[in-house]
Write the structure tokens for this entry.
Amino acid sequence: MNGNLDWTQALGAAFVQQPADVMKSIQQLRVQARAAGSLVDTPQQHFVMVGDNIRIVPAQPTTIYVPVYDPAVVYETQVGYVGPFITFGVGFPVGACSAINANWDDFWHLGWSLGARLGL
């Protein structure tokens, strides 16, 4: 994201202006990754179906891992190569406040909406 700041800013602007459309696109990409076999439970995170939506939740409630992956690989079935297609770096401790069953999708949406209302 840091390597392409124009794209990152455009994505942020799209999310502020059209959060439902951005989240719909994210769900479509998650469905593609799952169909390709890339989106699987790991020791770092779990994937939970909630209705038609795929939620990604931390496997350990007080630690969040940031996934690293090649988008050219995770959304298509790879012939002749067995993953892992998604790897993780060091986990980030987030404390006891995240140990509750928080709905991170709504949390982040609230944060963006609040920032937009404050002119941030």
User: Anything to note?
Assistant: The helical segments are 5-17, 19-35, 71-74, 104-117. Strands lie at 45-50, 53-58, 63-64, 67-69, 86-88, 92-93. The first strand starts at residue 45 and ends at 50.
